[in-house]
Amino acid sequence: MTASVITTRGLTRRYKGAAALEDVTLDIEPGVITGLLGRNGAGKTTLMSLITAQDRPSAGTVSVNGRDPFEHAEIIEQMCFVRDNQRYPDDYKLKHAIRAASIFYPHWSQQLADRLIELFRIPSKPVIKKFSRGQLSALGIVLGLASRSPITFFDEPYLGLDATARGIFYDELLRDYAAHPRTIILSTHLIDEMDRLLERVIVLDQGRVVRHADVDELRGGAYQVAGKAAAVERFVRDRRALSRRTIGGLGTAVLEGVLGDEDRAEAASGGLEITPVSLQDLVAAYGLGDAVDDGDPADPELATVSPLSERSAS
Ligand SMILES: Nc1ncnc2c1ncn2[C@@H]1O[C@H](COP(=O)(O)OP(=O)(O)OP(=O)(O)O)[C@@H](O)[C@H]1O
After folding, report:
1. 22, 54, 306, 307: which could join 287 in a potential S-S bond, CB 3.0 to 4.6 Å?
2. Counted domains in the chain
3. Region (Disordered) spans which residues (predicted)?
């Protein structure tokens, strides 16, 4: 088994008694892109802040490459944390941020920084505090990628970026990661858009880890059926449904398990269509995704069964 690059044991952070993170024990593999998922307030930023020694735990431990980062500057140098609300000195322009980063990060690539600045069209003249939200995010991405830090964290790096710029980010991240493999952990609410980047996911809910899994395994462990509501109900009866949804006379259900020949035959006889489950749907099916607005809840035609509320016995 590969040694973990990051381990946490019983990691807990409380604010005035309320737990932002509770008893988190993780072993994060090196050289993998991991998505940190979970609803607002789940504890994603808190976890990244603790690992990068920007905050201290109330209890538990963090170790990076076998050492406590808080006590080892050489470990901190190996990490880059791109925060969604990164602040810069008032008089800083692009060149100042780039110069500071080039001094701080030992693996800095000026060539990559120049290329990304051009691709994102980041302006050089105004001070950074005048940047738009999207330009600020683009600058964070430039610093995060060009740092080539062995461990890089991105906290919702896409805020304010238009679709073209987000596409550039995803492509450039994959390109540079392929050429210079490293450990990347990124928090996101755009699961559908970013799932092609993610190899593993950590799902947090109310400060606790509820899932830490390989994305392909997660996908392979569930499937979706869709068709006439009554046929979906019949199919679901003896299976483990993670979520079910009925709109008008049509139903869909996400089922846990590996699809076998018998399942296929039964689905076909009920006129049901079987489709793979997207990561977004799967996370939502486990009751952990961002709320999905399916339409007017007062609409009598729309009946949604909340995830996990009506699981059939397995
Ligand atoms: N400095 C603080 N003081 C008090 N409470 C805090 C502080 N920082 C975070 N929290 C609380 O800790 C919890 C976790 O916050 P965190 O920012 O880690 O969540 P998140 O998963 O990153 O959320 P989001 O997706 O909205 O960015 C929240 O309930 C938040 O209000």
Report:
1. 307
2. 2
3. 292-314
The pick from 11, 13, 15, 48 for probing ligand 1's pocket by mutation, whose C-beta has the most ligand atoms within 8 angstroms, reads 15
Is 87 within the bounds of a domain?
A: yes
- Report whether 101 contacts 146 (CB < 8 A): yes
Last residue in a domain, options 157, 188, 218: 218
The pTM of the whole model exceeds 0.80: yes
- Whether 243 lines ligand 1, by a CB cut-off of 6 Å, is no
The CB of 52 under 6 Å from ligand 1? The reply is no
Same domain flag for 122 and 247: no
41 lines ligand 1 (CB under 6 A): yes
CA-proximal residue: ligand 1, atom 8 (nearest): 46
Residue minimizing CA distance to atom 3 of ligand 1: 15
Chain centre to alpha carbon of residue 267: 33
Domain that holds residue 153: 6-218
Distance from Cα 46 to the centre of ligand 1, integer Å: 6
List, for residues 27-65, the tens digit of each pLDDT value. 999 999 999 999 899 999 999 999 999 999 999 999 999
Whether residues 201 and 245 fall in one domain: no
Could you report the predicted ipTM of this complex, rounded to two decimals? Answer: 0.98
What's the Rg (C-alpha) of the chain? 22
Residues 159 and 280 grouped into a single domain: no
Distance of CA 20 to the CA centre of its chain: 17
Q: Which of 175, 192, 218 is the last residue of a domain?
A: 218
Q: Is 20 in the pocket of ligand 1 (CB under 6 A)?
A: yes
94 shares a domain with 40 = yes
- Residues 27 and 174 occupy one common structural domain: yes
Whether residues 206 and 192 fall in one domain: yes
